[in-house]
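Summary for the funding panel

The consortium committed to producing paired sequence-structure records for every protein in the target list. Below we show the first two records in order, beginning with the earlier of the two.
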Amino acid sequence: MISSEPVINVGVIENYREVSGELLEKFKITSDVIVSGSFNAVMENGEIVLYGGKQIELLRGKEITFTPMNGGVFTIHDVVFGINFHWERKEHQTFQGSLRLIAREHGITVINEVSVEKYLASVISSEMSAGAPMELLKAHAITSRSWLVAMLEMKKKFSNLGNPSQRTQQSESELVRYYDREDHDIFDVCADDHCQRYQGITKDISNAASEAISMTSGTFLVYKNEICDARFSKSCGGISEPFHTTWAETPLDYLMPVPCSVAHRYAPLQSQQEAEQWILSSPEAFCNTTDGNILRQILPSFDQETTDFFRWKVQYTVQELSELVHKKSGIDFGTVLDLVPVQRGPSGRITRLKIAGTKKTLIVGKELEIRRWLSTSHLYSSAFVVQKENDTFILRGAGWGHGVGLCQIGAAVMAVEGFRAEEIVKHYFRNAELQKLY
């Protein structure tokens, strides 16, 4: 395990033909060239051409590194975040640390090199409102730090095995695919929701977030002398989902089904009937809250646009669904006749779904691939019941996200109810212990 704070590479944007921004402090780009102020970088003939103010060419090459003279503060214009989600938008974002521009086949990749604790301060501020309870911020800091460094350790361990990010098993009757965070080959994590939402110092990092990072600095969830791969999602829907049904098939003892409640009567759902009854009900759970004060405290403004996260409904006409599935999967099913859950996880999330059409019938999994195919962005979760009425498919669902690990809304309610950060993380990550490693 680690003994000192790592520095990480965060991919801010990828595949831009042109990148512009502002260097708010002095940076070195060569041993004797120091720059500041506005800049513009353009892809030309496979390399980056860097222009300063008044379009004066400063440097060209496959990679350009801006090394800060002091703390290093810079702004990148028109960064898209929430990519392919319903809250996707664009904004100028400001970062601290080193800046790298790398020419790749499809455009320029922008990378921010930053220390883990500074990165986490931004993540906590991006994921949570500045008014979130301190114990929630501390719990989230421990969770995010653990996931991040576990991922770094995993990349080192398996660096000789090639790219494991997209695993696909495909036959004539079935396509099962899962995605993970290791698909970024030239940086450690992306800045978007695919990894953890990171917006640098664009938003003022609240005193509370800084304090939560400081109070938990170097503290990790650990299981059997390894840092836990601590996942989180917005709302589990009442029961969390285990790791192995969502990603690799190897079970992790600290990522098993957990009721989002102090009650222990919620056993993992064993059958389709149990799952349907669960999803169509509104059980007692920490994340089953409509308390606007709590949601405003914990959710950034754009996440507050989603109000039906615990139980939700989506509906499509047969024609709409048939066109959507064709577009998102690239497979022509013809007219979709039925959606049949084949296998579910313990939280009710569908891990195998049979799509029956007039031209093609295929089983698709895992949960994220199902969510991709059944929405223009991402379906809230794969925990849903299929109902067909005349010419309409109605999906009634539960939860927001993959449901593995920490339930953010559930953890927030726990914090409001007086649970301490240690109690919160140990509730969702059973069998794990807390250790301070640096």
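The next record, for a separate protein in the list, is shown here:
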Amino acid sequence: MSYGTALALQQAVYQRLTANTALAALVGGAIYDAAPPGVTGGTYVLLGPEDVREAGDQSGQGALHDITVSVVSDTAGFATAKTVAAAVSDALVDATLLLARGTLISLNFHRARARRVQDADMRRIDLRFRARVEDS
């Protein structure tokens, strides 16, 4: 296994999301690798946790990355959050990402969880994507 491609994958996903015009039309520049202090409202996209496991084979080292991209919104109901989540999914599924290290083999939607954030009038959708990366 190699965790060496994790940063390169994160950077490529972030770049893909920030360059996507459909997503920008919905959230502007509110796409974060880490939410800046003081962001408490509006609708934004946040890169989140990642789980990685070994996926090497005889051809070389590799890993499966389960990455989370969250959509957070203070808009009433789930319509806005789901619209943004669909744009995130459209931007990432089967995307051709060039990594600074390694090669992306596949990037697919895995699952999602939509919920109201307790004690706040916020909606949150956590989208999980599975990326297979070979380290070179």
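Regarding this second record: The radius of gyration is 15 Å. The chain has one domain: 6-134.
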